[in-house]
Amino acid sequence: MTIETYRDAWGIPHLRATDARELARAQGRVTALDRAWQLEVERHRARGTSAAFLGPAAVSWDVLARRARLADTAKRSFDALDPGTADWVRAYVEGVNEALAEGARRTPEFTETGLTPGRWEPWTPLAVWLSTHILFAGFPAKLWREQVIRRLGREAVALFATDGPGTSGSNGWLVAGERTVTGKAVIAGDPHRFIEEPGVYQQVRLSCPEFDVVGLAVPGVPGIAHFGHTGTVAWAITNAMADYQDLYRERLRRTGAGVEALGPHGRWERAYRDTEFVEVRDAEPVPVEVIETERGPVIAGGPEGLDDGTLFPGDPETPLALSLRYPPRVTADVGFAALLPLLRARTVADVDRAFDAWVEPVNVVQAADTEGGTLHRVAGRVPVRAEANRVRLVAAWEPGHEWRGWHETPRAGLTDGIAVMANQRGPSTPLGVEFAPPHRADRITALLNEKDQWSAADMPAIHMDTHLASAAPLLALLAALDGLDPEAARLRDRLLRWDHRMDATSEEAAAYAAVRSAVVRRLAAHPAFTALTEPPAYPEVLLPWLGLTARIAFALENLLKAGELYGIDRPAIVRAALEEVVAVPAARTWGDTHRLAPWRALPGTPYSTGGTDAHPEPALSGDHDCVLCTSAVPGLTDLAARGPAARYVWDLARREDSLWVVPLGTSGVPGSAHHRDQLPLWTRGDLVPVVTDWARLTKETDDD
Questions:
Q1: What's the CA gap between 214 and 230, in Å, rounded?
Q2: How many other β-carbons are positioned within 10 Å of the β-carbon of residue 151?
Q3: Residue 446 falls inside a structural domain
Q4: CATH number of the structural domain spanning residue 260
Q5: Does residue 162 sit in the same domain as residue 286?
Q6: Residues 127 and 148 reside in one and the same domain
Q7: Residue 473: exposure state from Cβ atoms within 10 A (0-12, 13-18, ≥19)
């Protein structure tokens, strides 16, 4: 069997092999060479062992991974795979294990930490997939809604309902052939994820006699799951914002034999129980009690409640323990059966059938082929259950909260030759609770409707649009202010003349952001919201969903537009915020403070601070509700830890006219020529061509 590795000018691997199995092995090998540190971090995170080298900051994640039983779910799911898929995944793992030691020798993080790469198991890619996506559906938002309902009332949930902390979204649009200069469809977009170093997506080409696919792979997972182009059909996804994970309040008790949970029929049921230990760098091991009820693994609390002894409000007889029910744990199916059929797809019908096997995360899929076919559908498993399950915590001991099969996944068509998805309410509306505001989707639609014919080369301008429609309510309150002192009036008037574009070079965007942050902080400090400032002692990894300042920041538009807000004098708050910014001038331009802050896994410094004075990260245009979605957290920081984790343009007329870019580069090795070579392009909105001519590539290896 022969494996050939080629590279283009950006170091993107193009792999060619004699069959699909050998190609998977080649993909595993090149990923281990390019991304050894990333693979090792992801393997440990999936097993709940990352604190052993990252230190105490990683303990909360490791405890969640253990208690949610991610590794055990991956093992069960691998054992349930069909033989062909299992062998293909096993080949990828073989490739990783063959090259991981060499990749580690190239990567300084291994020397810095003293870490020796471990061995991947056949089920490890499934565990990586689970750990990457376990928080994607945002089940901790149910903890927030529970707090809001109990402190402010059920009607308050809608005030805060928006794409907010910890969530991940995307832009995606499909333009049918009737609206393009070539007569063939174009698909474009950008997934919004936390920006990591190295990136969460890996540009790659996979070629064998069965298929020849370019796309964005998830390091540690074989194939091309989310974004791919086979030459005759292309597909892309956005987060459907579906709700498919439930949190149950459990009544647990200890017995001489272990732990029991009260079930919905009034019977105490035996629960699984074990004790594991999380090893911690430079600290003592942390014991973890792993409990699983008939609903699912207990991820917070236990028979004695949370760490602070919290009892559930309004139910003083019940110590707080929460179990998580999620589809792969219930079905022993991660959805890997979709991956090989996607590579083999030739038409949208093939893509459609492949996504019938998709499980999680639940996505909106857009696809088009060279014969004129298009596809716009939701893919994934969403359980049928009571409405209360979707909104908040439900009692495990009460009947009526069980899962009753799976929803049919909705489908949609195109309107005037286009389909746009940006996490707004759309075909997946029946499956979700909270969605992104419509601003990004509306803006993309408006831009596409500005002309009748589009080309692949036109699409990057849409990627980079910085218009911020959500600024309108705050600007309206500013416009209504009177009696301002001269300096405040001048700043107000400047903001009212502003073009609403969050450009890095804009002084008005910086001033608007400063006023917005001051308003957020003042609202968060208002006594009306005091009851939301101290949630129970939930695990630290879940707390981003419970931070009041972040919640207010992302819901600010709703809070400012509401007819009444608990007696809060919003004009007075806006006036005080404006005066605060006048007294303490903001940064000169938005890009002075709005900078990239990529996450990098290193001991003691798990999060970037946006570079150093000597080597600052780049200034960014955009904002959370812009098409160019570079998300800061107003009131807390202007740094952007989340943004486009890749950009792509798939051209169905000529695949070689397709375009793509990632935030940093193909290599995870610091100092490599391709470690950060795409960053300048990504920052200014340029994309690189997809190369398909083997003669234009540089041959790197030829292995038997």
A1: 7
A2: 15
A3: no
A4: 2.30.120.10
A5: no
A6: no
A7: middle
Closest by Cα among 676, 640, 641, 672 to 661 = 676
Mean pLDDT confidence for 348-374: 98
In a domain, 636, yes or no: no
Strand partners, 247: 324
Task: For residue 480, count other CB atoms closer than 10 A to its CB.
Answer: 10
How far apart CA 220 and CA 121 sit, in angstroms, is: 12
The answer to whether the annotation marks 613 as part of a ligand binding site is no
Mean pLDDT of 520-542: 94
Domain that holds residue 305: 246-325
Q: What is the mean pLDDT of the chain?
A: 95
Asked if 336 and 423 sit in the same domain, the reply is yes
Q: What are phi and psi of 205, to 5 degrees?
A: -125, 135
- 409, 481: one domain: no
Q: Which of 77, 168, 170, 517 is catalytic?
A: 170
The model scores a pTM over 0.70: yes
Q: Which amino acid is at 460?
A: P
Who has greater pLDDT, 138 or 615? 138
Q: Are residues 228 and 181 in the same domain?
A: yes
Torsion of CA 570, 575, 578, 582, to 10 degrees: -160
User: 583 and 511, same structural domain?
Assistant: yes
Q: Which two tokens stand for residue 64?
A: 């969640």
Q: Is residue 450, in this structure, part of any structural domain at all?
A: no
Q: Are both 417 and 489 inside the same structural domain?
A: no
Same domain flag for 45 and 177: yes
Q: Cα(105)–Cα(108) distance, rounded to whole angstroms? A: 8
For tokens 């938005």, the residue is 590
Enumerate the β-bridge partners of residue 273.
291
SS in 3 state form for 357-411?
CCCCCCEEEEEEECCCCEEEEEECCCECCCHHHHHCCEECCCCCCCCCCECCCCE
Query: Does residue 702 belong to any structural domain of this protein?
Result: no
- Residue 481 half-sphere exposure, CB side, CA atoms within 13 Å? 28
CA distance 21 to 120: 17
Determine whether 170 is an active site residue: yes
pLDDT at 421 over 90: yes
The pLDDT of residue 162: 83
Of the listed ranges 14-18, 159-163, 183-187, the one predicted with least confidence: 159-163
Q: CB–CB of 424/441 below 8 Å?
A: yes
- How would you classify the pairing of strands 418-421 and 227-229? unpaired
Asked whether residue 308 carries a pLDDT value surpassing 90, the answer given is no
Structure tokens of 539?
A: 């695990």
Of the candidates 263, 296, 325, which is a domain's last residue?
325
- What amino acid occupies position 356? D
Domain edge (last residue) among 288, 310, 325: 325
CA 73-75-34 angle, 5° bins: 105
Distance CA 325, CA 246 (A): 5
246 is in an annotated binding site: yes
Q: Which amino acid is at 503?
A: D
pLDDT at 511: 97
**CA atoms of 609 and 632, how far apart (whole Å):** 12
pLDDT score, position 703: 61
DSSP 370: T
3-state SS, residue 456: helix
CATH code at position 64: 3.60.20.10
Report whether pLDDT(240) > 80.
yes
Number of domains in the chain: 3
Query: What are the strands, taking DSSP E only, across 560-675?
Result: 631-633, 637-644, 647-651, 659-661
Q: Which residues, in sequence order, are bridge partners of residue 215? A: 204, 228
Measured CA to CA, the distance from residue 131 to residue 38 in angstroms comes to 14
